[in-house]
Amino acid sequence: MKAIESISAYLFLMLFFAISLFPFYWMFVISSHTTSAVNHFPPLFTPGHLFGDNFSKVIKEIDFFKALWNTAAASGIATILQLVFCSLAAFAFSYITFKGSKLLYVFIISTMMIPSQLGLVPSYFIMTTFGWINSLKAIIVPGLVSAYGVFWLKQYMEAAVHPHMLESAKIDGCSHFQTYYRIVVPIILPALAALAILTFMGIWNEFVWASLVLKSSDSQTIQIALRNLSKVYYKDYAMIMAGTFAATIPLLLILAAFGRFFITGITAGAVKG
Length: 273
Known about the structure:
By secondary structure, the protein is an all-alpha fold. The chain is built from 13 helices and no strands. It is globular and about 70 Å long. It starts with a helix and ends in a 5-residue tail after the last helix.
């Protein structure tokens, strides 16, 4: 009976994986044919031999690799800094008592209920005042800290870090910062990995905010650059799919390399003690 249940579970996971992977496969199929393949009936499910030609068109239309570098740089820097600031804030709210800490934490968490679209206008005004329009700073700085990151790491810390460990560190003469990076950080690495993947993907896929603050071709991220492939009177879907598929490959590689840390962070945070 257990063997049958295990086989059924694996078959279900394989089916779910195939369904999840199919959009990327179909994207590659269309990008390897002419644009008429989109309307082909019955639909095409086998790759062609024109992916290289379609991707060469992408490179001619936009500065693909420059946009890819801008996106990777902005996503990487913002992700690293958000891990630092969110973990420090979570540590302070969890283990340091100061006046108004609970009220401040409630205020930070309450911002999660505000739609992000409401902050576009004031954020744009701030970026204009600082002169950061058409600069990657406009993408990096707003992503330095997030309410969700503080909330997630605080909950994980309180579940994974035993208070006796902090008391021992205090007795040994460790400062708050020494306790943070010597004891707390090694324990919450799975949670940091999970937050890193979510943050990196969120900034990589950012479109609305990036389309407002990044208008010059030198500062555009990959999402904005790909938008320029869509012409008003004619859309070369094969070329668009080729660019989109190529832009998705780095994310797939990151998920393949660090996916197990993401699963570990989510599952470990679900068990207290």
